[in-house]
Amino acid sequence: MAATEHGAPEVLEGLIRQAVGSGASDVHLHMDGQRARVAFRLDGVLAPATELPEGVARRVVGRIKYLARLKTYQETLPQDGRIDHGDVGSGSDIRVSTYPTVTGEKIVLRLFSAAEVMTLAQLGFPDAARAELEGFLAQPSGMALLTGPAGSGKTTTIYACLRHLAGCEPRAASHEPKTPGAQTGGLVARGSPLAVSARHIITIEDPAEQVIEGVMQTEVNAAAGLTFAKAARHLLRQDPQVLVVGEIRDEETANLAVRAAFTGHLVISTLHAGSCRGVFERLFDMCDDRYAAVAAVGLVLSQRLVRRLCSECHGEGCGACLGTGYRGRTPAVEWLRVDDAVRAALRERGPSAVEPAEPLEAAGRRLVAEGVTDEPELARVLGT
């Protein structure tokens, strides 16, 4: 049945079902004259999905704004909201962003994955990189910094780290009275009422895309004055053993993160830079005490996501991959474990001393040689 024969709720829910079924991370709806173009972001690349007549599109836009509790009449200013999963029959909540353009409003729906958080083993990291990450997470203090452009998988990596850190450990039965359903130590593992969280873990996110059992998660709210820096200042008084800061955006947050890692906390965060070397270039610009920054950082990971060749058609294009030739993505990773020798070199020569174990381009070339991806995809992601 054509979209014109359906009401806005049915059309919207149909688009979301189609997007989820194809594995899309986002739905883009852009008003363009007498129609709206709809595209799905599949494996990091926008793919045209369908077009909606103007009348239907406007009703769908109105429906989206209503469900996201936005001003339905506002078309000239950006708005942000969230749709509850129950309102559209989705497996998870949907983040909504509207933006005015010269041809009409642009709406982006971010589909939060309802899938289970990946384990470290499921990330697809090289064995050596995963071993370094697991070794870092076993430490009581220090800072790990992840870098890469938007959509490079940093959040997925952080959630895998959180799942690893929030693993439960059994304890001996207590003789204290039990309250049915009560939690001990902030966490009761499924199937094990006698389990406690190994560490006190607090996150500061923008937004929280997954809920991890046993982790105290916080979302920043710039409108209310809750920034990364302000949240970090106050959360350090909550006695965390592990602090995850979604992104280091300013000097105050950078100095707080370094101080926390330097004073006995395990800190995980992201920093926008192009490489492991770029992380230190930015960190040195942002931090008051370079000595403390060098001493605090224990691991740096720079990652990109490259599309895998479709296993059904081997890159030729078929129904399984919607004609793209690719299906799924895998990380290309460069990493630097910061030990005493690396710290000494950083103090002496600065960021030029950084030599990752496997540079990004070499990691990408290895994936091509293994038949995981191809040269055009590597050039698209790395610009090589």
Structure overview:
By secondary structure, the chain is an alpha/beta fold. The chain folds into 2 domains: 3-111, Beta-Lactamase (2-Layer Sandwich); 120-382, Rossmann fold (3-Layer(aba) Sandwich), CATH 3.40.50. The protein has 12 helices and 15 strands. The strands form 3 sheets. Strands 11-10-12-13-7-14-15 form a 7-stranded mixed β-sheet, with helices on both faces. It has a 6-stranded antiparallel β-sheet with strand order 3-2-1-6-5-4. Strand 5 (94-101) and strand 6 (104-111) form a beta hairpin. Helix 1 (8-22) crosses helix 2, helix 6 (228-235) runs parallel beside helix 7 and helix 7 packs across helix 9 (290-296). It is globular and about 65 Å long.
Instruction: Name the overall outline.
Output: globular
Order of helices and strands: HEEEHEHEEHEHEEEEHEHEHHEEHHH
Q: Classify the fold: give the CATH topology of the largest domain.
A: Rossmann fold
Calculate the mean pLDDT score and round it. Answer: 88
Number of helical regions:
12
| CATH C-level category of the largest domain | Alpha Beta
Low-confidence stretches: 168-196
Q: What portion of residues is helical?
A: 25-40%
CATH architecture level-2 label of the largest domain:
3-Layer(aba) Sandwich
Content-based structural category: alpha/beta
Radius of gyration: 23 Å
Number of domains: 2
Strand tally, please? Answer: 15
